[in-house]
Each structure stands twice: as structure tokens, then as C-alpha cells.
Write a structure and sequence with these properties.
Helix content is about 25%, strand content about 30%. It is of the alpha+beta class and about 280 residues long. Strands 4, 5, 6, 7 and 8 form a 5-stranded antiparallel β-sheet that branches. It has a 4-stranded mixed β-sheet with strand order 11-12-13-16. It has a 3-stranded antiparallel β-sheet with strand order 1-2-3, with no helix packed on it.
Length: about 280
């Protein structure tokens, strides 16, 4: 959940917190005492000795979390084949990709099956990146780019026009339209800060190296989103293939021209010089 939801519950006196566990193992991590970070699932749980040996964890090369100890996992009822598939030398395979911060707190990324692979074989979590980017009040939508033909992760970003425009007015920044506002140097730096914050939660090869503030909103009427505002990833990557090609060819700017549909049935064009931006600490080697 977004940090704003946690702040709301904390403001009314309910100390809502994240924890992580599975049906098979029970609780594995939680926040203790007054410690709380909405980006993490807390520290490794210390189970009571009566439940069994201490909980332990390790990560596979794929980033998958393995756990053992505590109450343990005896197996699925009358399903030895599934039990065998989920155990590896006594370790339970959670199927979840995670990272562990230096302070011992767990960051949940995604199901291993939902990770995407870069050209060097590295697996990265697109949904984690997109969700955490949307935590920013200045970002409405985001799509993480990268596949087996791409050497690094990049992102297409929709600014939240209402929030960014109010921010711009407070800063004394003048603008005419959403395309104009999205390419302002100050707005790009604002979004770069949000991207840099998310990058701190990711290992270096999963970090967003370049991003673009799109000069238009992703729109369900143009089939870029479902009616419930879920990304139609393959459609977006095909529609913006020229821009995506420019990102990965190292261009600093792209002449954006796209036909759009209005809600009243009319159509028009968005044409705008769109900047391709490097992220803080995201230099591509």
C-alpha cells in the first residue's frame, strides 16, 4: 500500500504496519516497537523456541527467498508431488523475489514468475518499480521498460498534472499545457528525485537508468489502459516504439508525434520535443 494510506491510519491512532509471510510458513518478517518504514516488510521474525529451530533465510541467484525453521512446513495435504516441488534440501521455496537492506529489513519485489529478464540475464521487478513510482504524489502512471533485448531498465512516466501544476505555481514556474509542463527542467528534476528514491530500494542492475516524462496522459480511450487503469504493457510498448528506440540508442531528445482521441470522439495530434533524462547515479556503462 502507498505510504499515504499508512500515514492516514497512523494519524487516527492505528499503528498499521507491513509484515511478510506465507500460508506454508506463517509470519517471517515484521516491524517491531516504534520502527516503521512503509517501503519494507520489517526484520526477520524471532520465533519462540517451542515452535522449533530459529527462522533462517537465504536468496537464490534468481533473487527468490528461501526459508526454514520455526514451525516449519511439513507438506501439502495428500499432495507429495507439490510438496517435493516446494522444498529444496529442507528449505521452503517461497516463489517471491526480495532484497534485504543493510539494516536487515526485507523489501518485497514481486513473484519470481513476474520478473523480466534483461539482455545480460539479470531479472528485474517491473511491477515493484511501477508501484513505488506511483507512490509519489507527482506521478500518476509509470511503465518500466526492459526485456531480453535491452541492456538496462528505463521508464515512461505520466506526471500527475493537478499536483505538479499546483507545485509549479508555488515555485513560480510558468507553463501553458501539460506537454509544456512535463518538459520543464524543474519538473524533470522533481520526477528525477522520485525515481532516485525508488532506485535506492533496488539493486544496481534493476535501477532505472533513463526516464521520459510523457507529454500526454495514458488514456483508456486510446486502449493504453484498461477501464480500471491497468497498464496494457504490450500495446504501450508497440505504440511508443519510436520513443523507446531513442531511449536505448542514447538520444537526448525525441520528436514526439502521436494521434490522440478526445472523449467527444474527435481526434488530434500531440507533437512535442520530449527530453530523455538520465537518473541520479544511473549512468549507463
Amino acid at each position: 500500500m502507498s505510504p499515504d494510506i499508512f500515514r492516514f491510519f497512523h494519524a487516527i491512532g492505528i499503528k498499521l504496519r507491513n509484515l511478510y509471510g506465507t500460508t506454508e510458513t506463517g509470519i517471517l518478517t515484521q516491524h517491531l516497537g516504534n520502527c516503521f518504514a512503509p517501503e519494507t516488510m520489517g526484520k526477520w521474525f524471532r520465533s519462540h523456541p517451542d515452535f522449533g529451530p530459529p527462522l533462517e533465510w537465504k536468496l537464490k541467484d534468481s533473487g527468490e527467498l528461501l526459508a526454514r525453521g520455526g514451525a516449519g512446513f511439513a507438506g501439502y495435504y495428500k499432495n507429495s508431488e507439490m510438496t517435493k516441488a516446494k522444498l529444496e534440501d529442507g528449505w521452503f521455496l517461497t516463489g517471491d523475489a526480495v532484497t534485504m537492506k543493510e539494516n536487515g529489513e526485507l523489501v518485497f519485489l514481486d513473484r519470481v514468475s513476474d520478473l523480466r529478464r534483461l539482455s545480460d540475464g539479470h531479472m528485474f521487478p517491473p511491477q515493484f518499480i511501477e508501484t513505488r513510482l506511483r507512490f509519489s504524489p507527482y506521478i500518476r502512471d509509470a511503465i518500466a521498460l526492459g526485456d531480453a533485448s535491452k541492456p538496462f531498465v528505463s521508464a515512461l512516466i505520466n506526471i500527475d498534472f493537478d499536483n505538479v501544476s499546483r507545485w509549479a505555481e508555488r515555485q513560480g514556474i510558468t507553463y501553458a499545457t501539460l506537454p509544456d509542463l512535463s518538459q520543464k527542467r524543474e519538473v524533470i528534476e522533481l520526477i528525477e528525485g522520485a525515481v532516485a528514491h525508488v532506485n535506492q530500494l533496488l539493486e544496481p542492475k534493476s535501477q532505472v537508468k533513463r526516464f521520459v516524462n510523457l507529454p500526454k496522459e495514458l488514456d483508456p480511450d486510446e486502449a493504453e489502459l484498461t477501464r480500471t487503469r491497468k497498464l496494457r504493457r504490450e500495446f504501450i510498448e508497440d505504440r511508443y516504439k519510436g520513443l523507446i528506440r531513442a531511449i536505448y540508442e542514447g538520444e537526448s531528445e525525441f520528436c514526439f508525434e502521436l494521434q490522440i482521441k478526445y472523449r467527444d470522439g474527435r481526434s488530434g495530434y500531440v507533437k512535442n520535443n520530449t527530453r530523455i533524462n538520465f537518473c541520479q547515479g544511473g549512468e549507463v556503462q
